[in-house]
Design a protein that fits this description.
A hairpin with a 5-residue loop joins strand 2 and strand 3. The longest helix is centred in the N-terminal third of the chain and has 12 residues. With 922 residues, the protein is mainly beta. The chain has a domain of 94 residues. The chain has a 22-stranded antiparallel beta barrel. Strands 3-2-5-6 form a 4-stranded antiparallel sheet, with no helix packed on it. Strands 33-34-35-37 form a 4-stranded antiparallel sheet, with no helix packed on it. 6% of the residues lie in helices and 49% in strands.
Length: 922
């Protein structure tokens, strides 16, 4: 066969044209509370693809070494190691066992078709035989059992044993915030009057911090309900100096996670007959805010057994989560914003109420963060999940059948509330949101295999049924939304594998149907084709291999009906009216939409050098048509098929595995390079430049020929040569309207993994570098506007500054300006003259960063000759973050929205975590 390689290769390429990545990662992906869950979305950040888990939390996803898998909306990540990747065929084969078909002999049949000279006394002539499945140790024979007229089985005498084992894992983590924008700590609440800087107290409702230097002020010592030390007056001898108050919301917090897993199983000889597993867990996740936390309690039970050749798995999972608050209404962003804007001359901590019962804040147009967090009931969020599942598998020779059934219910309760006197809701507001979800899932998979290791063909047919219901009730508008979807997937797949001494090839062809009662059009043509060709020992070099691969896949999907799009209501507000954000409106329906159709093809290659070095690369192109986005029409929130866009890019990975550095000292080094772009190809009529996320006056948008999610905002007016136009007062002139001002797409992302192992110790270091991309720093803009930013504090005394540019008549600007002139109105300073957000173009910043994502040190300690094991792990996440922008972590999202990357409007800072995990296996 070796002589025919060159003939086989062009034939296979011509026949198939494409294939998947050929390397896959398989495993269980659990919820943030370690719960198995159907349809948990697992996202490959590097390739952009995603897969959904089955009822056991199991998923198979195409991946490469160093890819980062993300699930639970980014809360969980995993960097894939080379040894964790396998070919799809190998993964599927591992899920079920193999059985060979045996010849059947019948004495009755033989007597009818042959004429035999019988010798009743001849042992050699007898057809009575002993089954090959008889027990080989005759001293343990329990009974002799006839299976038919000529076959006997020896049954062994097995000893049944009840065994117990398990594990207990406990972890403790300490959290602290990462960097936040710099603020000035010199100038107090106030503004200029008659050429002098004047302190203005909270009773004046002053919002600006353009008052005098705090070092020139003191307390008068008189009774004053806004400050226990009194009002501020010019300092003279004998007067107590004014204090700088620290209004930070953040503190160092401690959380924990305890998990107990116990297994009881019965063994008959060496075979496990039945296993019962119980898991109990409790986790407390303490936020870095004052008294904000959530607690999760879990109970899981599994029963696995084999009965007459059937593999049976039963599972029940229960999870209860409670939280003091969630960020569904932007509560955390609102509290964080007010803490940064609070002047240094006002203390939020002294008291949260005035004598009249309203909140005590530095202005009626601002909030005291402690008052926002004040609540009568301990928990404002509860979530209960229950899941039952049954899985039955059976093999008949080369035919395998697996049937999975599951039912899941989910009850979510939110109490979103602002008390009276909160800015924007003077009379208070309350919404009780109740969401009930239920899902019935059925999966039937049958497969039949022909051939052997050298040439094998596998045919499979998969039927998947999902019936999901969801209802949402909002008490504020007294409206109930009801959604229901029944979908079917019919998947046919054919796989062929060829193996020889130094040649391997694999081909996969398939087609699937997608049928749904909520889809406008069902899809019966969703083909896929995959191939790979691998040459081992190339050029007769031992353990040198080269692999070519490719794939083509079509998919149809719909938006998940349990997802809420209520947060899209930010696009109805200007940024200055953030205080009116209180989402209660859900989408009207998920019906009448075309499917989101995806066509993806990939091509790549891999080179393995010896056992240690590997280099691989891949190019991918994914075309999405009729993608769905939310819009407001006639004051209703709707979903529409709006845009076609293409996501494409390439990735390279290099790995050096098991690099020996000394006796029992080894290292693994990995590097990945990833570059992508997502370009809008077409937009439906009437939806050009619509917001994807953000506010009305600054948002991410869809524009043909541009990156999906490019930022639209205000900008400076320039001439044809790109020079700034300077107005008659000497300041750059703000242009009319909005235009595209930023692209959040990075130039590339590189990830590095360094692993070291010495005897029982291991050290892992993961860090990444993102180059390029832009973001809008609205946090900086608002801090500038109110005089709270460090820049406005340092530069407000700049005089006679001349902006580079030209005047309207084309002459070079020579008009000197003062950034803050006390003789002018406070709204005419360098930072206030353009309004609340200033000029958005002026706040576009680079999104580059270098991040040490994780460092962990682990050690195993065998106990009792290895029968038990103790493992200690010390870790730190987000230890170091260098960023080019002056705001929060560039990876943080606008109001925690999935598509909010690139907009920073008081985005919550990320946090660094120091932790310890102790795991005992018994």
């Amino acid at each position: 066969m070796k002589k025919n390689y060159l003939l086989l290769l062009p034939f296979t390429i011509t026949l198939l044209q494409a294939q998947n990545s050929q390397l896959y990662y398989s495993g269980k992906f659990l919820t943030s509370k370690d719960k198995e869950q159907n349809f948990l979305k697992v996202y490959n950040k590097n390739s952009g693809i995603y897969e959904l888990t089955d009822e056991k939390g199991f998923a198979i996803i195409a991946a490469k070494p160093y890819d980062t898998l993300v699930w639970n909306q980014g809360k969980n990540t995993h960097v894939i190691s080379t040894y964790e990747l396998k070919e799809l065929k190998a993964i599927l084969e591992n899920q079920t066992g193999n059985r060979n078909v045996e010849n059947i002999y019948s004495k009755t049949y033989d007597s009818l078709v042959s004429k035999e000279i019988r010798d009743d006394f001849s042992i050699e002539k007898t057809k009575t035989r002993l089954s090959k499945r008889s027990h080989s140790y005759f001293e343990r024979i329990r009974q002799l059992k006839p299976k038919n007229d000529s076959l006997y089985i020896l049954k062994r005498l097995n000893q049944k044993t009840l065994l117990f084992n398990g594990s207990f894992t406990t972890s403790l983590d300490i959290k602290n915030r990462n960097g936040i924008p710099g603020t000035q700590s010199k100038y107090v609440q106030g503004r200029s009057e008659n050429g002098s800087l004047v302190w203005k107290g909270p009773e004046t409702n002053e919002m600006f911090s353009f008052g005098p230097d705090i070092s020139t002020l003191g307390f008068d010592g008189l009774a004053y309900e806004y400050d226990q030390n009194g009002r501020l007056i010019p300092w003279v001898d004998g007067v107590q100096h004014a204090r700088k108050y620290n209004n930070s919301l953040f503190k160092t917090t401690v959380g924990y996670n305890n998990q107990l897993n116990v297994n009881a199983f019965i063994k008959e000889g060496y075979n496990e007959k039945i296993r019962l597993s119980l898991n109990l867990g409790q986790q407390k996740n303490q936020m870095y805010f004052i008294d904000q936390f959530d607690i999760t309690n879990t109970f899981k039970a599994k029963l696995n057994t084999e009965l007459n050749g059937y593999s049976i798995n039963l599972a029940f999972n229960y999870e209860q989560e409670k939280a003091t608050n969630t960020n569904r209404i932007g509560l955390f962003n609102r509290a964080y914003q007010n803490s940064l804007l609070t002047p240094i001359s006002f203390s939020n901590e002294q008291n949260i109420l005035l004598n009249n019962g309203s909140q005590r804040s530095y202005s009626k147009d601002a909030d005291n963060p402690s008052f926002l967090f004040e609540q009568d009931d301990k928990y404002r969020y509860q979530n209960r999940e229950r899941q039952f599942s049954l899985n039955v598998g059976k093999s008949w020779g080369n035919f395998k059948l697996n049937i999975s059934q599951s039912y899941e219910s989910n009850n979510i309760w939110n109490r979103d509330q602002y008390k009276p006197s909160v800015y924007g809701f003077s009379n208070g507001v309350l919404n009780e949101r109740i969401q009930n979800n239920s899902l019935y899932h059925s999966n039937i998979l049958g497969s039949y295999a022909l051939g052997d290791y050298d040439f094998k063909n596998t045919f499979s047919l998969n039927f998947i049924l999902n019936d999901r219901k969801s209802d949402v009730y909002n008490s504020f508008i007294n409206q109930k939304y009801q959604y229901q979807r029944t979908s079917q997937d019919h998947i046919f797949n054919y796989n062929m594998d060829i193996r020889d001494y130094d040649f391997e090839a694999g081909f996969n062809l398939g087609n699937s149907f997608y049928i749904s009662n909520t889809s406008l059009n069902n899809n019966y043509w969703l083909p896929k084709a995959n191939f790979y060709v691998k040459f081992n020992n190339i050029f007769n070099w031992y353990n040198y291999s080269f692999k070519l691969l490719g794939s083509y896949t079509q998919l149809s999907t719909e938006p998940e009906i349990t997802r809420s799009y209520a947060s899209y209501s930010t696009t109805l507000l200007n940024a200055q009216n953030y205080n009116q954000y209180f989402p209660v409106q859900e989408v009207e329906s998920f019906r009448g939409l075309s499917n989101i159709n995806t066509k993806e093809w990939k091509a790549g290659a891999r080179l393995d050098v010896s056992y240690n070095i590997s280099l691989e690369g891949e190019y991918f192109n994914r075309k999405n048509t009729d993608d769905i986005f939310p819009v407001f029409e006639n004051n209703q929130l709707k979903l529409k098929n709006i845009a076609d866009h293409t996501y494409s890019g390439y990735e390279f990975n290099f790995a050096y595995d098991r690099l020996r550095l000394g006796d029992d000292f080894y290292s693994i080094q990995k590097v990945s390079f990833f570059k992508y772009k997502d370009i809008v190809d077409k937009i439906a009529p009437g939806y050009k430049n619509i917001p994807v996320s953000g506010f009305k006056d600054i948002y991410k948008t869809l524009t043909e020929g541009q990156a999906l999610g490019a930022v639209m905002g205000s900008y400076f007016e320039r001439n044809v040569d790109g020079q700034l136009i300077i107005d008659e007062l000497g300041f750059p002139k703000k242009a009319e309207g909005m235009k595209m001002i930023a692209d959040p797409t990075p130039d590339f992302v590189m990830k590095f993994t360094h692993s070291f192992a010495y005897k029982n110790f291991s050290l892992d270091i993961n860090w990444e570098w993102k180059k390029g991309g832009q973001l809008w720093n609205g946090t900086q803009a608002v801090l500038d506007y109110y005089g709270r930013s460090s820049d406005s504090g340092e530069d407000r005394n700049i005089k006679n500054y001349v902006f580079q540019g030209v005047q309207a008549n084309g002459t070079v600007n020579q008009i000197p300006v003062d950034f803050y002139d006390p003789n002018l109105n406070v709204l005419e300073t360098r930072w206030t003259r353009y309004g609340y957000l200033g000029v958005a173009e002026n706040y576009i910043q680079k999104a580059d960063y270098v991040r040490i994502s994780n460092i962990s040190l682990s050690s195993n300690f065998p106990i009792n000759y290895g029968k038990q094991n103790l493992k200690l792990t010390f870790y730190v996440n987000n230890l170091m973050l260098w960023q080019a922008s002056k705001g929060a972590d560039p990876n943080q999202n606008f109001y925690d929205m999935d598509n909010g990357r690139g907009l920073d409007f008081f985005n919550l800072p990320s946090f660094k975590t120091f932790g310890c995990i102790v795991s005992l296996k018994f």
